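Retro notes (design track)

What went well: tokenization of the new backbones is finally stable.
What didn't: we kept losing track of which sequence belonged to which structure.
Fix going forward: every design gets posted as structure first, then sequence, in one message. First example under the new rule, 219 residues:
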């Protein structure tokens, strides 16, 4: 563990509101690990990547499962145009209404499950990360990765990570010079050293990964 780093259980929950918070976290990481300092020299200032919260945000995450970004954008646009971005509207809609927006049968079921879950979205804004994750993963179709991403970008939690993300795993391999991509379990253990700024570490690793792949001509 990094000396003097507060443990996730004892530290107060920090929220990332703006670029200054991201910059503070990036400086903290760079000061404590030369590998992060080198990665930050490549990426430069990191993006905020905050987004809206609530039903609509998780609905969009369900839409985006196993489809391209472009396809998800089209489907979400159709749902928005049809007024099907709230739980009651989704419950009242027919399967044909939802299918016309581009949803598969499985995603229609997931969306109805989300609408019926009666999640207290306002209450989640002040809930601890694990409570947020536990609440969301009870809904069929929402896995831990989706819940962690929601806590990170929709709620702004500074000390949450998503080790199941393949890009984060590959970026960690590159940044830390590992012989192989770390498993989800191994990366979760690694990320404990980056508390209380694990969400900023994720931003740094994602940004580094994107630049690395751009250099390779992959993206």
């Amino acid at each position: 563990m990094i000396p003097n780093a507060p443990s996730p259980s004892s530290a107060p929950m920090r929220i990332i509101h703006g670029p200054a918070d991201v910059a503070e976290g990036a400086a903290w990481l760079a000061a404590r690990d030369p590998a992060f300092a080198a990665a930050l020299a490549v990426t430069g200032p990191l993006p905020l990547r905050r987004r809206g919260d609530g039903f609509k945000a998780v609905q969009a995450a369900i839409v985006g499962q196993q489809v391209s970004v472009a396809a998800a954008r089209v489907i979400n646009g159709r749902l928005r145009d049809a007024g099907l971005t709230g739980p009651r509207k989704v419950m009242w809609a027919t399967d044909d209404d939802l299918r016309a927006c581009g949803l598969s049968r499985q995603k229609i079921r997931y969306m109805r499950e989300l609408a019926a879950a009666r999640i207290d979205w306002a209450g989640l804004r002040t809930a601890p990360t694990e409570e947020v994750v536990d609440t969301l993963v009870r809904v069929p179709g929402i896995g831990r990765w989706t819940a962690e991403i929601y806590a990170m970008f929709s709620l702004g939690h500074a000390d949450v990570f998503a080790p199941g993300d393949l890009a984060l795993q590959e970026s960690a391999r590159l940044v830390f010079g590992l012989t192989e991509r770390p498993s989800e379990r191994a990366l979760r253990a690694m990320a404990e050293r980056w508390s209380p700024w694990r969400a900023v570490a994720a931003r740094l690793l994602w940004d580094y990964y994107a630049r690395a792949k751009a250099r390779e001509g992959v993206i």
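Added context from the reviewer: The radius of gyration is 18 Å.
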